[in-house]
Amino acid sequence: MFFQLTEFPVQVWISGFKNRPDNVDATLRSIQEKSPDVTAQLVDLGRVPGSRYMLLAVLNALKSFHSKQPIARSLGMEILLYIAASRQIGEAIQRVGISSSTEKIVGILVGTTRDELLHATKSLARILNQKSDDDLIDNWSPDRIRNVQSIFEIRDMELKATLRAGEAKTKAIERLATERSALLTVRK
Fold this sequence. Notes:
Blueprint: E1 2-4, E2 11-17, H1 24-34, E3 39-44, H2 51-65, H3 75-84, H4 89-96, E4 105-111, H5 114-128, H6 142-151, H7 156-162, H8 169-186
Antiparallel strand pairs: 1-2, 2-4, 3-4
Helix pairs in contact: 1-5, 2-3, 2-8, 3-4
């Protein structure tokens, strides 16, 4: 999925992959070498909310990174922190980072032009030896629901109070997780 942000002169690409890379750092380095003007981040799909959450986390990370007091030294790490709703890098990696138990991943790319992003998306697909699948991002399994609730400390009572009539449980979870991520800006 491509997104044009009006607040910043950047485009964002977010998509899912069915398999994780063997070496996350090497994959990110390879993308950086092939597309030096693109920021890349990879996270565990089974541990993060949907596409709306991911886009808002990237937007908040961009705002923070371009402020006078970013949390991290690189935009890629700032994105990871906002996706994990954590100020601590180690905790963020533990929460949403790719591990040996990761089955599916989310790729996030940020660049100034669509052509840059297209080149980077093709590079990532080649490195992972698979095509991206946008539909994975908003496809929630029962395990993913439990994981996201646990990681973002969303209790059943809070979820029940937040759930709107006729709304999917996953939308309420995504909204609550978005609140937690947005609070990073307040806690700076």
